[in-house]
Write a structure and sequence with these properties.
Shape: globular
Helix content: 55-70%
Radius of gyration: 23 Å
Order of helices and strands: HHHHHHHHHHHHHHHHHHHHHHHHH
Largest sheet: none
């Protein structure tokens, strides 16, 4: 799902969710069966007792297993031969893939092998970049087409979408590595791959256990530093990252408990139930508001837990601040405090799935600068994300709606700032709490409204919900898009307009 934010500061719009996310459905519903290693009898029983699907339980177990894997790497492989670390990452990553998807792990193995051949045979050429993009995206789309159901299911396409971005980024960084540094931006110089990665190195990078299932994205250059033992706040020693990692794990588990308990009362299925349709209009809108807030917690859980794994092993090291304090946010996907307190759509974007947003900004949005049109680049970045998420109509509708909301929000903020009357009203201390509550209500109501097609994704389901609330969000924001420029002409003094133009 996407809203603006791919390049905070760059203007692209992307709040990204993870395709193929899990659902806490009782075992036995459609989409529950899939080929996995072993009979899974014990896990199936445990999942049923927890009111979860077996696939969801396997996912949680897989990302939690990252912690013992990271501890082993910290204490037994730190600053050892790099090939040992690559082998360890390949073995653990493939084990996780087999545990979740059985022999379907061959999809990722095939794409990694072909990607290595593309890099070696085509070299640092634009042809290699386009070939990578076309092949990896086509393979992912074919996977979506062949495995599509009417429900969210955890299948091999879920980690494969993460792998697709990783391999596309590798191809672009490898291409940049062949250019003169003077012709690269500082960001491109930082991520450019100068050497020629081996097959073992590419495989270790692809299957790193802390990011294989749900991300985060990280560059080959950072992975190479990790393998050399350089991702540490104390050179030559293991990183002092134990406490920061446990903090993210604890926070992730808190969100997991919150989501699990809330999902007993809030569910996707209720949105299309007859009981929901018979409720009054205010209730239907209020339910979407609460549902939209809760439904995102399952993504927050995964990203916080996996971020903790990356921090523990050292991949999360991001240098030091101006006071010399180590930063552990290189693999951060969430700014939790901002996410929970912001009253703005753009604030949610700046706090949610920030790692993937940065990837889209770096490899899609900024690479379209040659078009000379920021809005067009933004639209193409969003279209890429919609296709990357899947083939259902709901993804396109979601991205369209959220882009519309962000454009209108920007216009409204500029109007308040440029109008002396509105800015004076907004600055009254006694009224700020009232404005905050109203903004939060509006924010989560229409965030939930935008999420409806993303989470229901088939035409008949999301249209049913939108009809029940009379396409309220579309009517409101398209009206505001047309009306706000005229309101601005009426209440913004001419001198303010001229100053803005300058």
């Amino acid at each position: 799902m996407g809203v603006e934010g791919a390049a905070s500061g760059a203007g692209a719009a992307v709040l990204v969710l993870l395709p193929g996310s899990w659902s806490y459905r009782p075992a036995g519903r459609p989409g529950e069966k899939m080929a996995v290693a072993g009979s899974g009898w014990g896990l199936a029983q445990l999942a049923e007792a927890l009111g979860s699907s077996e696939q969801a339980l396997r996912l949680i177990v897989s990302i939690l297993m990252g912690y013992p894997f990271a501890l082993f790497q910290r204490y037994f492989l730190f600053q050892k031969e790099t090939y040992l670390i690559h082998l360890y990452n390949v073995f653990t990553g493939l084990s996780i893939a087999y545990f979740n998807f059985g022999m379907q792990f061959f999809h990722s193995l095939l794409c990694v092998l072909i990607q290595f051949l593309i890099l070696r045979l085509m070299g640092r050429t634009i042809t290699a970049v386009f070939t990578t993009f076309f092949f990896q995206m086509t393979y992912l789309m074919a996977g979506y087409y062949c495995t599509a159901t009417e429900h969210y299911d955890i299948k091999w396409t879920m980690p494969h979408c993460v792998l697709t971005l990783k391999l596309i980024g590798l191809a672009i960084d490898y291409y940049d590595g062949g250019k003169d540094p003077e012709f690269l931006t500082p960001e491109q110089r930082r991520f450019a791959v100068r050497g020629v990665p081996t097959l073992l190195e590419v495989s270790g990078f692809s299957y790193f256990y802390g990011a294989f299932m749900v991300g985060p994205q990280f560059s080959m250059t950072d992975y190479q530093k990790l393998a050399r033992g350089e991702m540490t706040d104390v050179p030559g020693q293991r990183p002092n990252s134990f406490v920061p990692a446990l903090k993210r794990l604890s926070l992730g588990l808190l969100f997991l408990v919150t989501y699990t308990l809330s999902s007993l009362y809030i569910s996707d299925e209720y949105l299309i139930s007859d009981d929901y349709m018979e409720k009054p209009f205010w209730f239907r809108c209020g339910y979407i508001l609460i549902w939209g807030k809760i439904i995102l917690y399952k993504y927050v859980t995964c990203w916080l837990v996996t971020e903790g794994v990356c921090i523990l092993v050292g991949l999360g090291y991001n240098g030091k601040d101006q006071n010399g304090k180590p930063l552990w946010d290189a693999c951060a996907n969430m700014k939790v405090w901002l996410y929970e307190t912001t009253p703005l759509f753009t604030g949610t974007i700046a706090s949610f799935n920030t790692n993937t947003n940065a990837w889209v900004a770096r490899y899609i949005f900024k690479r379209l600068k040659f078009l000379g049109n920021k809005l067009l680049s933004q639209a193409l970045a969003l279209f890429f994300l919609a296709v990357w998420h899947g083939l259902h109509s709901g993804y396109l509708v979601c991205f369209q709606m959220e882009l519309l909301i962000v454009i209108v929000e920007r216009q409204a903020i500029n109007l308040v700032q440029d109008s002396p009357a509105l800015s004076t009203l907004a600055s009254i201390t006694a009224l700020k709490p009232i404005f905050y509550v109203l903004q939060q209500t509006n924010h989560w109501m229409f965030m939930g409204y935008s999420l409806v097609p993303f989470c229901l994704f088939t035409w008949d389901k999301w249209m049913k919900v939108y009809r029940s609330i009379y396409f309220f969000g579309h009517v409101l924001f398209f009206t505001l898009l047309l009306v706000l420029p005229y309101i601005r002409r009426l209440i913004v003094p001419r001198k303010e307009k001229l100053k803005k133009a300058e």
